[in-house]
Amino acid sequence: MLFRAHFTVNLSTFDILCSVHSRTSVNVPPPARLAIELESEVDTPSSHDIDVVSALLGDPAFAPLAEEAVRDYLDWDELTRRPLPPGLSVEDTWNLLTTLRRFGATLSPLKDVAGRTWWYTLTREGILCVDAIERYCRADSAVHRAILHRHGQRVLVASHIRETVAVCELDGVDVAPQSAEHVLTSGRTPRNATERLVANAHALLFDDDIGDEPFSPELLRRLYAKLLDGVDVSTLKRHSVRYGLTDRVEADPITKESRDEIVRQFCAYANGETGDPSEPVTVRAHALLNSAQYWGFLPEFSGIVGRCIFRLYASRRDYPVLGYLPISSVYQAWAQGRVSPSIVRFSATPDPRAPGAGGPDYTPEVLTFLQLTVAALDELLRSIDHARRRDAEVRSVLEHDVEINYRQRSIISQAMAHPELELRIREHQTTHNVVYATARADLLDLVERGYLRQEQRGKAFVFLPVPDLAERLDGAVRS
Fold first, then answer.
1. List of domains in the chain
2. Whole-number Å distance between alpha carbons of 262 and 266
3. What is residue 293's predicted lDDT score, i.e. its pLDDT?
4. How many Cβ atoms sit within 10 Å of the Cβ of residue 274?
5. What are residue 460's DSSP bridge partners?
6. Is the pLDDT of residue 471 over 80?
7. DSSP line for 15-53
């Protein structure tokens, strides 16, 4: 892919540079002449132009800039600190380098509010990120198998809660994380509009299954209705919303016709009807998420619905782990300046400073998202590994704890694997072939030790793992 991009750039650059030279006054220095009419119509090059083109491409100041611009992203601030080719200003050099890069770019079928076409190039850093994401996020990956194991399931529950809170906060809702966690882990009925929205968002992001239904405006409206089911929006505490990595101000005018058209384009893109077929899954998933946030094509909470589309699209393309990653919580940390410079290249996406370059350059946003995705993947892997080692330590301690019998150890193992587990005395009695009194004593003893909690459902009692079971078991290991 990288070789193909270089070949296209060099061939097209030759044509356009020769054309510019052939139509420029001989009294203007060659490098400046090349920049003056960079966006002009391409004519048939003259054989006399070969030396001029070769001289510029081999210029000791221009050549390394061109190589870095094509293979990596060279931002405006960095360019202003570099030696420039004789006769070219910073703006001339920027325009020329941007044109070189754009010949090997991927164009998006989605537009910005001004109707301009987004484009990006996949840099060397980006290609490495895509390779890692494809290796670890597919359904046949070791990470997905680990997620299906009890270590991964427990980690996933905590990750989903953090992601739900982050998605709601990014969409302008003030959320109390502890309250949200209690609602999502205890199963209690939400007590206010914020808790109801959090519960609905969690179900939408990670539980809702629409099968193979194509993406459509009707589907988006149905997901939006599910999100707001039972929510009194007027009572929500709100704050300002950031419209994706490529931010725009709320005052930007967007007509109903524009929104309707972008929703149609959005769904066609999500269904694979438009766009480059070879575009990496993770890049298109991000473009869908960012476009939903940027356009705000629903009356409210387009970011939450966009995150749902992100997960559904990734799952349909056989990348389930990508849909599970805490993308929003990592992005939120980045936006707040809490991500180390060693993890992501940009602390904020740079000003493109590209007048007349043929549309907005989306490359910094794509690279930033890919690096944040790898950071989210690393976080998930570390959490799973930590859970695996912790489980081994807990099992070792419990196996030698004479106060806990083998039936109770079995219950604890199930509870660690399935935090949503519900146990009943009769079921425990049947499973282990003991009398009712013994089964009841097993469960009540675990309640007394703080590992289970007891709730009444009708006339029967059910026993559930406490939300902080892992922390309590850790305390047992250390004591």
1. 2-104 (no CATH), 109-385 (1.10.3290.10), 403-478 (1.10.10.10)
2. 6
3. 86
4. 15
5. 457
6. no
7. HHHHHHHHTS-TTS-HHHHHHHTTTSPP-PPPGGGHHHH
